[in-house]
């Protein structure tokens, strides 16, 4: 068995980015005042705005990790190639190497018929390129990429 060569990796340095907040508590409280009637509607009864009071507005941050990766994989797979040769062929030379044809049954023939073939084992070189984006959060939170702001934000602290 041949040894698998070590593949060099190009891993980017980890970055911690803190964004400037786009909303302030006063704005959130005003929005809550505007929406309070819609939030507490019960079937056919609608409470009066003065019956509902916004007591406090809490703002908290949830950390998450954004994994943005690109990778390319190059690999070889073994492949068997079968070539049909002339009935009278006794030897076939390909790239200076000699191959003796063998008889192979032709499937689904009555009575069974045969043909002369040579089989070569080769390796196909394949490659794939992929981009992957993941959002990692705490296990107890349900996060979806849609929840995260997609608009550019002002960076107030960047640490590499």
Task: Write structural notes for this entry.
With 160 residues, this protein is mostly beta strands. The protein has a domain at 75-126. The protein contains one helix and seven strands, in the order βαββββββ. The strands form three sheets. The protein has a three-stranded antiparallel sheet with strand order 2-6-5, with no helix packed on it. A hairpin with a 2-residue loop joins strand 3 (92-94) and strand 4. The protein is elongated.
Produce the secondary structure layout:
Elements: E1 16-19, H1 25-39, E2 65-84, E3 92-94, E4 97-99, E5 102-106, E6 113-136, E7 155-159
Antiparallel strand pairs: 1-7, 2-6, 3-4, 5-6
Separate helix tally: 1
Calculate the terminal CA-CA distance, rounded to whole Å: 42 Å
Question: What would the average pLDDT be, to the nearest integer?
Answer: 78
As residue ranges, the low-confidence spans are: 145-152
Largest sheet: 3 strands, antiparallel
State the share of residues found in helices, binned by percent. under 10%
Q: What structural class is derived from the secondary structure elements?
A: mainly beta
Radius of gyration using CA atoms only: 34 Å
How many beta-strand elements? 7
Beta-strand residue fraction: 35-45%
Which geometry do the CA atoms define? elongated
Across the major sheet, the strand order is: 2-6-5
The succession of helices and strands, N to C, reads EHEEEEEE
Structural key phrases:
mainly beta, three-stranded antiparallel beta sheet, two-stranded antiparallel sheet, 160 residues
């Amino acid at each position: 068995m041949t040894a698998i060569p070590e593949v060099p990796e190009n891993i980017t340095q980890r970055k911690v980015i803190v964004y400037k907040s786009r909303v302030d508590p006063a704005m959130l409280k005003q929005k809550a005042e505007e929406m309070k009637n819609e939030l507490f509607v019960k079937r056919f009864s609608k409470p009066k705005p003065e019956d509902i009071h916004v007591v406090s507005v809490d703002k908290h941050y949830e950390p998450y990790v954004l994994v943005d990766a690109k990778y390319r994989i190059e690999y070889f797979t073994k492949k068997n190639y079968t070539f049909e040769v002339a009935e009278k062929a006794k030897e076939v030379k390909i790239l200076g190497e000699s191959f003796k044809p063998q008889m192979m049954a032709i499937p689904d023939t009555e009575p069974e018929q045969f043909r002369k073939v040579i089989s070569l084992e080769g390796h196909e070189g394949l490659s794939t390129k992929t981009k992957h984006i993941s959002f990692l959060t705490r296990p107890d939170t349900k996060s979806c990429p849609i929840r995260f702001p997609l608009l550019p934000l002002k960076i107030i602290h960047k640490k590499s």
